Structure formats: structure tokens, C-alpha cells
Amino acid sequence: MDYKRNILITGGAGFIGSHVVRLFVKKYPDYRIVNLDKLTYAGNLANLQDVEHAPNYVFERADICDYPRMQAILRQYAIDGIIHLAAESHVDRSIKDPFTFAKTNVLGTLTLLQAAKEAWEGAFEGKLFYHISTDEVYGALQFDGTLFTEETKYAPHSPYSASKASSDHFVRAFHDTYGMPTLVTNCSNNYGPYQFPEKLIPLFINNIRHNKPLPVYGKGENVRDWLYVEDHARAIDLIFHRGRVADTYNIGGFNEWRNIDLIKVLIKTVDRLLGRPEGASDHLITYVTDRQGHDLRYAIDSRKLQRELGWEPSLQFEEGIERTVRWYLDNQPWLDQVTSGAYQQYYEKMYGNR
Ligand code: NAD
Ligand code: DAU
Is 291 within 8 Å of 230 (Cβ atoms)? Predict the structure, then answer.
């Protein structure tokens, strides 16, 4: 079949990537969607079981740092659009092992950019390299009501955000130097189904269910701006198709929560859905040593995206959290599988240890 577009989505077996792949495979049967993922601990093909047999879906296990593989895949599928999500994404891991973050997030992104430039050189028209980034590149805000805009100066603090900031600069440099059509978006904290349970929301839902301590960093006063993952995927779809080349859009929910207040909502919701008396799990809250360099507050101003492309979040937070908690409670086998590591051994057997 001749496809209208051939789109490469990197990191499609991860949390946000799997929602983007699902949306594109279902919404655009005339596009071929190539999901490229290394399947690190965070990548899990079980996230995509409902689309894995779709005729317009292809999976390639590959490392974005592998230049010859990137060249071969771009050529084989005549890729004309890239949505780049593959990354190491957990701040705590970056504090322990910054090199892996520099390798994947900086060198991996550069490798993919260079392969795309080579594949598209002389024919940039109609091509797009769309890089998915984070609000963490802007650093931290005080409790003063200010928001990150697209003009906010980069000031990353963690090795994770430093690596994402660096990759953003490389993406923009490929536009400014070679004229490659690129685009960057910076999004706030996502939540929803299929998030690896090392991140706050799925980790705490799982711990509440199993009566395990809830490790609150510092005083629990840090603030994050939460967006339901499907709303992020919808924004990516819109921006991929209608965003201005070389531009930047911030994506966020105007939905700020202090960690401790969010944790109390999680406790209440899990207890209610499990039929436990109200307050039954409050004692699980355990204040622990703060994260090193813990950013105080993130909050995104996404008015540019709303004004120019008409995007806005579709879900109220209460509804999103209810849906999310229900999903994790209903999908305990998924949680068990990703926490046991059994799925990793399965993939090594299937695809080898590349
Ligand atoms: P995730 O950790 O759940 O998924 C990352 C995916 O990338 C995994 O499937 C993993 O196997 C794959 N990957 C890692 N290294 C790779 C490599 N070398 N080659 C190929 N694939 C590789 O991450 P996520 O939370 O879904 O985040 C996706 C992207 O969105 C990241 O770039 C992240 O920085 C960005 N982002 C995340 C959030 C959030 O709240 N989760 C918010 C804003 C931006
Ligand atoms: O802002 C976007 C970013 O959001 C993304 O770029 C990152 O990929 C994503 O991981 C996320 O980063 P955070 O560090 O904000 O997310 P995390 O879920 O790790 O932590 C959320 C808040 O909860 C943060 O203030 C730290 C705190 N926390 C986290 C964990 C895992 C705890 O208090 N205890 C915990 O056990």
C-alpha cells in the first residue's frame, strides 16, 4: 500500500510514546507508523497490544545512538516525519547515572538529527523533525504565580533536564544551520495509564494498594503542573500537523498541585475505590530525605498553543485522577509485570540483547 505519510515515532513503547502511537495508528489508517524503541526498562510493548496487529503499524527495536540503524530505518520506510520521544526520563536515575542521560538524550538525539539531515538533504520540503521536550529545561519557579513561557530562559538543574536542554539546542541548531524543518514542544508533568511505576503517581497508587510506605521527598511542598497524557498526545497530533516550523510551543494543564495535596487525593481515591474506610492509608505517608537539587515549582503558560492552534486540556483533574487510579487498580497484572522485570527477559529472548 502507498501511504500518505511515513512517520517515525521514537520511544513509542514508553509511557507518552505509546499514547501517541495509539492515537496516530487509529486516527490515520493512511499513515504508516513506525515505532522505534530500544526497549529499555521503561519500554514495554504490552502498552500497545491493542494496535500491534494494525496494518499501518510497524515496530523496530533499535537504539537511537546507532547511526547505521537510523540511516537504514529512515531509508527503508521513506520516513518523512519524525516525532522524537525516546529518552531517559526519570530525574532520580539521572542523579545516580548522568552519563546514560547524556548518551541517550544528547548523543542519541544528535545521531537521529544527523541521520534525518542526511536522508532529507536537498528535499526538506514536507519533512518535519518534531522533538518532544519538557518544562524542566526552564529550571524552577518560586511560589510567586509566575509561569514558564516560550521566552523563559533555559536554566536546567538536574542532569536529566540539562540533557534535555542540550538536545533542544541541537534540534534548533539543525534548523538554524542546515535549514532542517524542526519543532520543539515543552510539556509539564504527564499522568495516566502505562506510566512506569517509578514516577510519583503510579508508584504511590501501587504502594497505597499494597499498604507500603509513600516516600514523600522533603516536606512535600514542591509544586508540579499535571496534564492527562491523552491531552498531551492530542496536542502533539495538532502541532505535528499545524505547528509552525522552527517554533516552540509550551503544553500544560494550568493545573498546579503541591505534592502533598496530590498525594492526599491519591490516598482518598484509592481507599474509596478499594472500599476502605476514609483515612485508612494516611499513615503510609513517610517524609524522606529530599531529592538533590529538587526543583521547587513548575508551571506552564500554554496560552500560545491555545490561542494559535485552539488546543486546550479536555479533562478536569478530578476526572483524570479517578480514571488513572481505576486503570492501575484494574490493571494489576501490568503493574506486576513491569515491577517484576519478567517482561525484560521475554524481550531479550524475542529480540536478543542488542
Ligand atoms: P518513558 O521513560 O516512559 O519512555 C521512554 C521510551 O524511550 C522507552 O520506551 C524507552 O525504551 C525508549 N528509549 C530509551 N532510550 C532509548 C534509546 N537509546 N533508543 C531508543 N529508544 C529508547 O518516558 P516518557 O515519560 O514517556 O517521556 C517521553 C518523552 O517525553 C521524553 O523525551 C521526556 O523527556 C518527555 N516528557 C515527559 C514528560 C512526563 O511527564 N513523563 C513530560 C514532558 C516531556
Ligand atoms: O515536568 C516534566 C517532567 O515531569 C518530565 O520531563 C519527567 O520526565 C517526568 O519524570 C516528570 O519529572 P518529575 O521529577 O516532576 O516527576 P516525578 O514523578 O519523579 O516526581 C514528581 C514530584 O514528586 C517531584 O516533586 C518529586 C516528588 N516525588 C517523586 C517520587 C518518585 C516524591 O516526593 N516521592 C517519590 O517517590
Answer: no
Dist. CA 204 → ligand 1 center (Å): 20
Active site residue 198: no
Q: Is residue 201 lining ligand 1, measured as CB closer than 6 Å?
A: no
- Which of 160, 194, 249, 343 is catalytic? The answer is 160
For the Cβ of 89 lying below 6 angstroms from any atom of ligand 1, the answer is: yes
Nearest to 308 by CA among 232, 228, 254, 248: 248
Quick check: is 160 catalytic?
yes
CATH number of 5-188+227-252+295-317+343-351: 3.40.50.720
Does any ligand 1 atom lie closer than 6 A to the CB of residue 38? yes
Residue 155 backbone dihedrals phi, psi, to 5 degrees: -150, 60
Domain ranges of the chain: 5-188+227-252+295-317+343-351
Closest ligand 2 atom to 259 CA: 23
pTM for this structure?
0.97
DSSP letters of 115-165? Answer: HHHHHHTT--TT-EEEEEEEGGGG--B-SSS--B-TTSPP---SHHHHHHH
Spell out the per-residue pLDDT of the chain, length 354, in tens: 899 999 999 999 999 999 999 999 999 999 999 999 999 999 999 999 999 999 999 999 999 999 999 999 999 999 999 999 999 999 999 999 999 999 999 999 999 999 999 999 999 999 999 999 999 999 999 999 999 999 999 999 999 999 999 999 999 999 999 999 999 999 999 999 999 999 999 999 999 999 999 999 999 999 999 999 999 999 999 999 999 999 999 999 999 999 999 999 999 999 999 999 999 999 999 999 999 999 999 999 999 999 999 999 999 999 999 999 999 999 999 999 998 866 666 556 555 543
135: annotated active-site residue: yes
- C-alpha grid cell for residue 306? 491555545
